[in-house]
């Protein structure tokens, strides 16, 4: 059984603020996280090679014989085949991107040598063309690649399995609808002619909802009355959505329970969008959207005509919040008030267009504790240490 280690490469900062609180491999794209995809395909548990402060929550399991795999890449058949054939010191590449390497350590490697393992590869270098791969390169790829990712996961998850029966009250098109046990749905419309629809365990889709695939609803999540959802959209576990969504990825444990539009967006965990929160996903002049880039330290052209919101974990919006195209909201924010706030809101900020202040860490912890307890999850000391590190690390943006 392989010891699979999913490593974050130099593109890590392109996925901030989502990866302040998780490695790249823990991002949900499609139905499952990238790590879950590798765990299933590799038939083994995987570990993470990420930032030092994340390892207490996302541990690294370094062994004698390690298969290090770039966390941005999915386990396509072409990549899996090359990894299976790797010998000690050999690696797989796509252009300048290192995809995988087999590293044997008999206890002699220093921590620095482990961190720089890519400098010590002495075996053959194999090449795979990009058209045989599925991967993410920027934070907006989480939603732009979500349709492909849902298809990738749907085929794997539903293979040789039988769906629960579609209730007689449900109107549906297409034959790519898979319903897990415990799901409840009546008087809703499902259209899988545009892509597969996956409905997870113990979920609820309330009356009047209109859903067009590709779509995934993960366990213990719900769709509210009369919601309108356009794919490709993923609603992660323990989340609630309502209103109108178009090409959205919600990592999990977050709510958009009321009317309002959310489009071409990615939302972290423990977020809440207040009633009638709306984000713009298209500029009035139809030009490509610029969004904040942590790696650049300024705004970057996405090349996308449709680009809405990226929101880090534990952030909230008040009722009637208006968010402009390409808005980036960090970790632990509370955005509210009249008018459009700035399109880059640093982590741990309270306020909006009319002014803002720093969200005190003690008050943030108290809110997070209450929010997480509603899902019977504890805010642990490990969480607090990680979030405190993020607070310190992001201070320069607030000043």
Largest sheet: 13 strands, parallel
Structural class computed from helices and strand pairing = alpha/beta
Question: What Rg, in angstroms, do the CA atoms define?
Answer: 21 Å
Indicate the CATH topology of the largest domain. UDP N-Acetylglucosamine Acyltransferase, domain 1
The oligomerization state is single chain
CATH class of the largest domain: Mainly Beta
Helix content: 10-25%
- Overall number of strands: 33
Within CATH, the superfamily of the largest domain carries the name: Hexapeptide repeat proteins
What is the overall silhouette?
globular
Low-confidence runs of at least 5 consecutive residues: none
Second CATH tier, the architecture of the largest domain: 3 Solenoid
Structure overview:
With 399 residues, the chain is an alpha/beta fold. It has two domains: 3-132, Spore Coat Polysaccharide Biosynthesis Protein SpsA, Chain A (Alpha-Beta Complex), CATH 3.90.550; 141-343, UDP N-Acetylglucosamine Acyltransferase, domain 1. It contains eight helices and 33 strands. The strands form six sheets. Strands 7, 8, 10, 11, 13, 14, 16, 17, 19, 21, 26, 29 and 31 form a 13-stranded parallel sheet that branches. Strands 2-1-3-5-4-6 form a six-stranded mixed sheet, with helices on one face. Strand 4 and strand 5 (97-104) form a beta hairpin. 48% of the residues are buried. The model has no long low-confidence stretch (mean pLDDT 96).
